[in-house]
Amino acid sequence: MNKTTSDALQTEQQALLAAIGHLLKPFATLCLAKGVPIQAIEELVRHAYVEAAKQACEGDNPERLTSRISTMTGLTRREVGRIQQTSTPQLPATRSVATDLLTHWTSQAAYVDKAKKPIAIPRQGPTPSFEALAASVTKDVHARSLLAEMVRLNLVIHHKATDTVELLEDIFVPNDDWPQMIGFLGTNVGDHLEAAVTNVLGDGHQHFEQALLADELSSESVNEAKALISAQWRSLMTTLGPQLQALMDADQAAQRPQDQAIRIGLYSLSKPMSSTEDSSK
To answer: Is 241 within 8 Å of 107 (Cβ atoms)?
Structure first.
């Protein structure tokens, strides 16, 4: 490796470390809030390094795998062997019949009004009804049981006088279930990060991953912007939801292998402008 190549690699590594440092700050805040010591995080990093190196060496001579992983990661052969024999915590499940029904309710045209907001629906009867919605989501759970579960989760209210069901929350935030909330953090942020990393290591076109920044806003404007973002998300859900369902139905009809998944997200973060942003004006 010549000096020019070495300098370029060092520059890339420094930029990467700076980006990782930015990513780690929120995780450090979260871990400190829950009393997770740094040793536990170091162990997870070691596991992640070994797993990534193992995937990179797929197809190589199995007898030399430990040595290859040791060389790539900087860990000793003994440490690599130890890590390969231990397991890491698994993410809690985030998907349920209730969350699937919530997604259908907020994304199907028959179940939203002109403003793309979920409408109140009869408990029984043809579409649109809670019974029909439940049947489109699952054949294993009775609509009555599913309604009881969603009432328990404070997602819906059953108006018995009119026998209608109204959605109280059009987004599932399991405040009373910490593991499930962390599961959402892991899957949503994890998939976003995986998409960005794949793009950086590739040609940038493997996954859609874009962001829009607006600064020099007042607090009042930020509040208005949040309402605009919510409206955009509702529009996205009701537009893409039926189209994605149509694609799944077409795959099933054509008997194509249905072994792929796609996650689509939208996020926003508002905070005071940094000194770097201020000085760039």
So the answer is: yes
**Cα-to-chain-centroid distance, residue 87:** 23
Return the structure tokens found at 209: 């991953």
The whole-model pTM stands at 0.78
Q: Which residues of 9-43 are buried (b: 16+ CB within 10 A; e: fewer)?
A: eeeeeeeeeeeeeeeeeeeeeeeeeeeeeeeeeee
* Edge-to-edge order in the sheet of strand 121-122: 121-122, 164-167, 156-159
List Cα–Cα distances, 270 to 17, 188, 213, 274, in angstroms. Answer: 25, 19, 10, 12
Work out whether the CA dihedral 150, 154, 156, 161 comes out positive or negative. Answer: positive
Structure-token pair, residue 64: 């030399």
Question: pLDDT tens, 83-96?
Answer: 999 998 888 877 88
DSSP string, 152-164: HTTSEEEETTTTE
**Which residue from 19, 17, 33, 20 is spatially nearest to 182, judged by alpha carbons?**
33
Identity of the residue numbered 73: T
